[in-house]
Amino acid sequence: MAKYFDVHPENPQRRTISTVADSIRSGALIAYPTDSCFALGCQLGSRDGIGRIRSIRNLDDRHHFTLMCENFAQLGQFVHIDNDVFRAIKAATPGSYTFILPATKEVPRQLWHPKKKTVGVRIPDHVVTQALLAELGEPLLSSTLLLPDEEEPMTQGWEIKERLDHVVDAVLDSGDCGTEPTTVIDFSGGDAEIVRRGAGDVARFE
């Protein structure tokens, strides 16, 4: 049965955030809010967490997982990024964008795209997510909480708790969340390729 944590959207309770971070370090799979929509998250190297996310979402090995990063210093440890791409990403973050980039050796191989050796990264513009990332001290391995055969992610924490009670370990809720996933931009080839149009404005990348 999943634990349910209700936190303030602007001043998340430190003790609660610490409890959730500890559970992630212990192998928990959580559902949590972001600046686009709810996401599933687990510790970076958790094989069990990766497997559970794949099972919940019915994903194959070509799916790009996302490393939710607190800031650029953290992001730069996990992807290769040249100066031009750095400037383009810097101008768009924090925000509702996921960027596909070549993975460094710091990224577990099971997260690499099998052919491209890439991974998704993003820096969210969300108080609760940022608080959790700061407490965790490392990226949170994430994937949009979009269930198979459904067109939109769930938006209510209580609904997620009700429907996924036996497949996630915790639900972190800070009120209404959006329904539109991030805009995905693939920079792995050097130029910006729009993979998915979502919550982030694509105009700057067209």
TrEMBL record:
The keyword Electron transport does not apply. Its EC number is 2.7.7.87. Pfam families: Sua5_yciO_yrdC (PF01300). Residues 14-200 form the YrdC-like domain. Keywords: Nucleotidyltransferase, Transferase. Coiled coil: none annotated. This is L-threonylcarbamoyladenylate synthase.
